């Protein structure tokens, strides 16, 4: 699992177009905590996943998987080309889905907390994704990669020297609004704050997904075996690497 996660995040950095930065306060790479990252998520976020990528990459299992990988040469090439060593420079990944689940088109955003060299990374991303259009939004340059045969359109921003974000155009702009204190963050929503306070955030990864009563009923009605979840308002998942256990907790608010 850890090997797959390492490869996933290397691909995430290769796969999306990102942009220029403006000075603002945000979680600093190397000293930020997982809870700090939540301060950037829009209030509309209904599903959140947080991964302590640096902690995963510091494990013996991750080091062994990288050293023995058949793609080790490409991994080393990525470090040289992008100026990013995934074992040392990437700290957190945070993903969020905005709006109620079940919508035809969902908005989503991903944030990566890391140390990086903007020019090197941008050049690599443009090479991988092709030329991108740009749009100025509240002092930030938003890079937009158009849809292709096997890729969906994506927007991205270099938020500051420690954080980059990518996702649907609407979601990316909402993160910028939160960053500039022009919109509420998820942490300012009482129900979601109370819900997420029940999550064990001490492990390598955790997630929290909130459901409206209508959504919970729809899921329960879809299968008799799921009838018991009709009263649930969310699902909490926590993964702890200390004893290699997966804890899944269903909770009501």
Give your account of this protein's structure:
The protein is α+β, with helices and mostly antiparallel strands and 253 residues long. It has two domains: 2-187, no CATH class; 189-253, no CATH class. Helix content is 35%, strand content 26%. The chain is built from ten helices and ten strands. It has helices spanning 2-15, 34-38, 53-57, 60-68, 72-82, 86-89, 118-129, 169-179, 190-196, 213-222; strands spanning 45-52, 90-98, 107-114, 133-137, 140-145, 154-158, 163-167, 205-210, 234-240, 245-251. A ten-stranded antiparallel β-sheet has the order 4-5-6-7-3-2-1-8-9-10. The longest helix has 14 residues, at 2-15. The radius of gyration is 19 Å and the shape is globular. Mean pLDDT is 82; it is low at 1-24.
Q: What spatial form do the alpha-carbon principal axes imply? A: globular
Secondary-structure element series: HHEHHHHEEHEEEEHHEHEE
Report strand order across the widest sheet. Answer: 4-5-6-7-3-2-1-8-9-10
Radius of gyration over C-alpha positions, nearest whole angstrom: 19 Å
Question: Roughly how many Å apart are the termini?
Answer: 31 Å
Main sheet attributes: strand count, strand direction, barrel closure: 10 strands, antiparallel
Mean pLDDT: 82
Briefly note the structural class of the backbone. Answer: alpha+beta
Number of domain modules: 2
Question: Quaternary status of these chains?
Answer: single chain
What portion of residues belong to β-strands? Answer: 25-35%
Features:
alpha+beta; 10 helices; 253 residues
Summarize the structure.
This protein is an alpha+beta fold and 253 residues long. The protein has helices at 2-15, 34-38, 53-57, 60-68, 72-82, 86-89, 118-129, 169-179, 190-196, 213-222; strands spanning 45-52, 90-98, 107-114, 133-137, 140-145, 154-158, 163-167, 205-210, 234-240, 245-251.
